[in-house]
Amino acid sequence: MRRSNFPIYVVGYMPQGILPQVMKEVGVHPRGMNIMLPKGAFVRLLIRDLDPRQANIIKQSMLSLGGEAAVPMGFLDFTLERGDVLLTGTLTQMAKLTDKLKLQPFGLKVLAEEIEEVLRGLPDSPLGGSRAFAMELPRRSGGKIVKRLRLRITRRRPLVMGVINLTPDSFSGDGLAGMVDEAVSRAWTMRDHGADIVDVGGESSRPFSDPVTAEEELKRVMPFFETVGGSFPLPISIDTYKPSVAESTLKEGASIVNDIYALRSRGMADLISKYKAGCVVMHMQGTPKNMQVSPKYERAAVEVADFLKDRLNFAEKKGIKREHLIVDPGIGFGKELSHNLELINRISYLFPLKAPILMGPSRKSFIGRITGRSVKRRVAGSIAASVMAYLMGADILRVHDVKETRDALDVASAIIHEGI
Predict the structure, then answer these.
(1) Which residue of 119, 145, 342, 406 is most buried, as measured by CB atoms within 10 A?
(2) Rounded distance, CA 403 to CA 385, Å?
C-alpha cells in the first residue's frame, strides 16, 4: 500500500447505477458511453491538512470545471494556516481537476496522483477501477497445508461471515461453550444457508467483559478445530488477539485471524505473516472492559479511517500480504449510538484504503437503542443494518442470522444490478 501524503476521504459517491443499461436501450455507441458515463457518476472528496495556497488553487480549478470546492473561511483571508477542502463533482470533473493540478506547484501534482488512485478504487467506477478483491488462503491440518481456499469479493455478491461463539457469556445469547458437536453442526448449517466464512471465538468481547487466559480460550476452541480439521469447505476465522491461540488454530484449520486489537499484540503480525493467513484489523477505542465508558471522538469516521490506514501500513511492513488484509471499523467497540450510525453512513471514508470492508452490526446494542428490542429480538434490525452497510459500501457482513441476512443481501444486490 503506497503511503499517502494527503489524507483523502470519500464523503459520498453516487455511482453510474443503471446508466449503462439505459444508454444501451437508447442505442448509444460504446465509445460514446465511455465518454458520457463518468459524467453521470458523482463523488465528494474530503482532503485534509491543506494550506491556503493549495486550497485556493484547488477551489479556482474546480470552479472553472463547473464543480465545487468548499473551503474554510480562514483560507479566504489567510487567517488559517491549515484546513480541509470538500470537493463535489462528477468523475469527469474530478479527472479534469487532476490534469490541472499536475501543472501546479506546492505538492499538488502528488495530490492529483493520489486523487486518481482514490477514484480508480470506487465501486463500479467507469474510470477503470473496481472494488473487487481475491484471496487465496491456506488451510492446515496437523500443521501441514491440506488445501488452498479462495475468496472472491465483489459488489455483486457481498460475503456473509457467520458467527459461532464458543463462550458461556456471549452478549448475543448464543454461546456454545463445551458443545462441540452442536458448534460443528451449526458451522455446516451456516454453509448450507449461504455463509462464505465462519468466525469462531472463545473469548467474549462484550462491553465490560474480563479477558480469559490463553489456556482457557484454547480449551474452548481447539475441540472445534480438531473436529473440523481440514474438511470444512469454507474459510474459518479465529476471533482472537492472542498469538498463541492464533497459532494453534492456524495449524488446525483456521485461515483468517479476526483481531479486535488490530495486530497490537506482540508477535501477532509476524505470526500471521509466517502462516500466510488472512487478517481482519479492527478499530476499538480502549478494551472490552472499558470501551463503552464515555467513548469520545472529534470526527469518528476520520479517526477510524486514519487508525485503520496506520494498521494496514504496519501489517505490510511486517510482511502480511496486501491481498490478505480486511478492515473493520468496529461497530459497538468503543462507540456511542451516534458514532455507530456515522460509521455505517460513512463507510465510503474507508474506500481509499483499498481493502475489503467488514461490518458487524448484528444484534449490537445500538439496534436495541433504536428499536427497544432485546438481543434475541433484533433480527430485523440486524438485517436492516447489514443491508444498509452493504448499500453504503461494506463487502463482508459478520452476522448471527446467516440465512435471513444472505437472503436480504441477495435481494438488495439483484435490485441494484437488475439481475442475479
Answers:
(1) 119
(2) 15
Task: Using alpha carbons, select from 289, 302, 386, 299 the residue that is nearest to residue 333.
Answer: 289
- What confidence score (pLDDT) does residue 218 get? 96
Q: Which domains does the chain have, with CATH numbers?
A: 8-120 (no CATH), 133-417 (3.20.20.20)
Per-residue pLDDT band for 55 (boundaries 50, 70, 90) equals very high
Task: Give yes or no for residue 3 having a pLDDT over 80.
Answer: no
Q: How confident is the model at residue 170 (pLDDT cuts 50, 70, 90)?
A: low
What digits encode the pLDDT tens for the residues 354-378? Answer: 999 999 999 999 999 999 999 989 9
User: Cβ-count burial of 269 within 10 angstroms (0-12 exposed, 13-18 middle, 19+ buried)?
Assistant: buried
The residues that are catalytic are 364, 398
